[in-house]
Amino acid sequence: MVKQESLGGQAPDTPIARPVALPLQSKLDEAVILGCHRFSYSETQVDAHIDKMLALWTGDREPIGVDVEDVNRCWRCPYEEGCEWREMKAKEFTSKTGVHISG
């Protein structure tokens, strides 16, 4: 039984509507392979890249910004707003040149 206060004043015996999820199997039955592409790769390079990315997401390393010449790529990044790397680079620029960059 649920307490009346937690239901925003509804009577305690009123059933609560809950979302119904489709069984996983029905979702898998609807899955369709859109295409397949074979390509050559270096297993060593792929493993190193995955290790590097996992280290970022598990907090074992700090994010690495792009080269200053490539900051035009930042507009596509979902983390552009509040990016610590961009803020650090702006402060470095300001300390070297005395020119303040806003944004």
From TrEMBL:
Xref: Pfam families: Exo5
Gene Ontology CC: one annotated term: mitochondrion
Record GO terms (molecular function): single-stranded DNA 5'-3' DNA exonuclease activity
Domain of life: Eukaryota
A GO BP entry: interstrand cross-link repair
Family designation: Belongs to the EXO5 family.
PANTHER family recorded: EXONUCLEASE V (PTHR14464)
Protein name: Uncharacterized protein
